[in-house]
Each structure stands twice: as C-alpha cells, then as structure tokens.
Amino acid sequence: MSSRNIPPLTYKVVAECSVSKARAGLMTLRHSEVNTPVFMPVGTQGTLKGILPDQLIELNCQILLGNTYHLGLRPGIGTLRLAGGLHKFMGWPRAILTDSGGFQMVSLLQLAEINEKGVNFRSPFDNSECMLTPEHSIQIQNAIGADIMMQLDDVVKTTTTGPRVEEAMERTIRWVDRCIEAHARDDDQSLFPIVQGGLDVPLRQRCVSALMERQVRGFAVGGLSGGESKHDFWRMVDVCTDHLPRDKPRYLMGVGFAADLVVCVALGIDMFDCVFPTRTARFGCALVDSGQLNLKQPKYKLDLQPIDKQCECSTCKRYTRSYLHHIATNENVSCSLLSIHNVAYQLRLMRSMREAIQHDEFPQFVLDFMARHFGKDPIPTWIREALKAVNIELPPEEEKQEKETIKQKKHEQAVEVSQAASS
C-alpha cells in the first residue's frame, strides 16, 4: 500500500495505568515511529545547541522540535524549500514538530502587535517588520516539512485575567479554521490545534469542545508553564485531559522539569518539550534523579565518579565529575558533553515511565521517583494534590521521615561493620 494512502499520523494506545490517567502509546509519523510518553528536545533554529543529529540518533531520540518564527526569519522559506525541507537541511532523518510562532507573542511582546489578522513582529535581527498570520505560519511550516505542526494561537501570559483571556481563546478557535484552510500538505503533515483559556476552567472546557469539532489528528495544551502557580498549572492540565479524546495524542507545550513530567504523565499527557535540558547544561548543570548537580561547585573538583552511574550516555561512560568541573562553562565542549547527558536523562526518564505503564507498575514508579527526587525535603503540596486526583497517594511526610531515619541508621550500621572488619 502506498504511503499516501496511510494518514501521516496514526496513534495507538498500547497500555494504560490501571490507577491513574497515564498511558503508553505508539505514534507513527512519516519519518519515524514515536513511543509515548515522549520528551522532545528543542532545536529552535534547526539545531540543538551542542549536539549533532548523529548524537541524537545514538541517544535514540525519535522526535525533536523546531521554531517556526525563528526558522521563518532565518534561513527563511526560500532556503527551506530549496533544501527540500528542514529534515534535509539539518541532516535529521527522524520526526520533527514545529510550534507556530504564537509563543513569541508573549516572549517578544515588546516587538509584537496582535490583532484579528495576525501578529505584527519587528525582527530582533534587523528591526524589519513581519506580519505572521495563521496562513503565513502554515506556509512556513509547510516549507519546513515538519511531521507535526501547530496552529497559530493567540497567546497571553498565564497570569492574565479578565476579558483578554476569553478573547484570546475565541480567536485561537477562529484561527485554527484559517490554519486548516491554508494547510497545503495534509497528506504529509499533521496539524494540531492548541487548547487555550488561561486559568479559567469553563474557558478551557469550551475550547476543548470547540477544537474537537475539527478534523485533526492530535491536540496541544498551551498557555501554561509561564509563571502561574503550580496549583493552577496541574488543575488546568487535569481539566484538559479529562475532556480530550482518548484516541489522539496530547501535547503539553513547554514543560520539561522532571517532577512536572512525572506528574503530567500521571494526568494523561503524552508529549512534552522544553529548552531546559540544554539551557541548564550551558550553566554547568547536570540532571540526575535528585535534581541537578552544579558541576561548577568546588566539591566536584576531586570527584572521579561519572555524573550518574546508571546513565549509559557517552559523557557518563567517558568523563568524570572532576573533569566536567574543570571545563564547566569555560570550554565550549562542556556545553556539548552536559547537553548530551541531560537529553539522555530526559529520554531515559520517559522510557522508564513507558515501561512502568506497560507493566502496570506506574504508581510504584511515581512513589520511588518522588522519594529519590526530593530525598529528605518535603514533597510540594501541589504534587501530592495532583497525584491524589488520579488515585496515587504519596506517603505522609511523617512516614517519609521515619523511612529516611531507618535508612540512615542502616547506613551507619553498615559503616560501623565495615570499619570493624578493617581494624
């Protein structure tokens, strides 16, 4: 059967947690299969800072993200078309997702004016003006050739209240129809609408209902992870996944902290992206289950361990914390080595969650992860509440502290036995 007769995106739920809303799935795209839940590293301008495409393949990265706004400015539609799309231009054979440029309405607000027609940007590179309309956003994304594209949405700061939130939500719905009409490559690329509505539950529900009337292959949840309280954040995610269809992938935009990923998988999200892993690498920080190791700190000067003994990335196989401390932030190669590890960490975390879901052991995975991640520190109330909403109960702090005390005593006894044996 010709590939043209097969939709450019199919999605199948392969396993579901019997307790929470977590699920594992298989998304089949034109360029690769993608196992979900999945974390997508961000290559804003067609490259991940510090990592080559071949290195991403070695990490078994199945899909990455590019930025429509930036790629539309540089290299531009003409170059992308001449190159045959972003896959060929950057030498990446696997799947790509592109955002629409809508987020720049917030991040570059001082350079943008928003009206019903679209967003009028002033280029940060040469100060020239550019009108990004829903049609133009799709035109750029068609030239990029991404497997999954985002509609242009009207994005407001997450802390915005009042009529502007409803206006943005309604405009987002109108704009998705313009995006669908402008989409010229539906046989190759899939367009996701974006759920907006700020921190207003009825608006989120209205937006989901309206978007579900459109013939689309997946949905994104936008307008979160931008400064709102974590209490509001998880509730909006929960509301959206309660109403989105089971048989289509759900993408939560801009989320990448490990604890957030675990909680949002429990809430039923399938796809994530964030610049965090590579950005924090540029500051000399490595991701581990307990949080971050700031390798610039003097305590790592003589530490000859790898970043993470359980990690099989090339950085952990070859280099010590001491060496990475020596070069952290001082040499360009340190950004590359730490970025490789941090992306590997995110991908391994997602793989572990998929395996736990498939074995119906996800609740226990969550308990174990949170114990490692927070250690002796209290687990934030919002995490407890979010997990409880999907039937995962974390142990009370008193019980957690008791376990830590027992663990510490066992360690001290083992040290005493070891010292006695060597004396």
UniProtKB/TrEMBL annotation:
It comes from the Eukaryota. Residues 20-373 form the tRNA-guanine(15) transglycosylase-like domain. Substrate binds at D99, S100, G101, G102, F103, D153, Q196, G223. It catalyses: guanosine(34) in tRNA + queuine = queuosine(34) in tRNA + guanine. Gene3D superfamilies: Queuine tRNA-ribosyltransferase-like. The keyword Thylakoid does not apply. The keyword Oxidoreductase does not apply. One of its GO terms (molecular function) is metal ion binding. Residues 397-414 have a biased composition (Basic and acidic residues). GO terms for biological process: tRNA modification. InterPro entries: TGT (IPR004803), TGT-like_sf (IPR036511), tRNA_ribo_trans-like (IPR002616). It is found in: Cytoplasm. Residues 394-423 are annotated as: Disordered. Its EC number is 2.4.2.64. Keywords: Cytoplasm, Glycosyltransferase, Metal-binding, Transferase, tRNA processing, Zinc. Heterodimer of a catalytic subunit and an accessory subunit. Catalytic subunit of the queuine tRNA-ribosyltransferase (TGT) that catalyzes the base-exchange of a guanine (G) residue with queuine (Q) at position 34 (anticodon wobble position) in tRNAs with GU(N) anticodons (tRNA-Asp, -Asn, -His and -Tyr), resulting in the hypermodified nucleoside queuosine (7-(((4,5-cis-dihydroxy-2-cyclopenten-1-yl)amino)methyl)-7-deazaguanosine). Catalysis occurs through a double-displacement mechanism. The nucleophile active site attacks the C1' of nucleotide 34 to detach the guanine base from the RNA, forming a covalent enzyme-RNA intermediate. This is Queuine tRNA-ribosyltransferase catalytic subunit 1. The lineage of its organism: Eukaryota, Metazoa, Ecdysozoa, Arthropoda, Hexapoda.
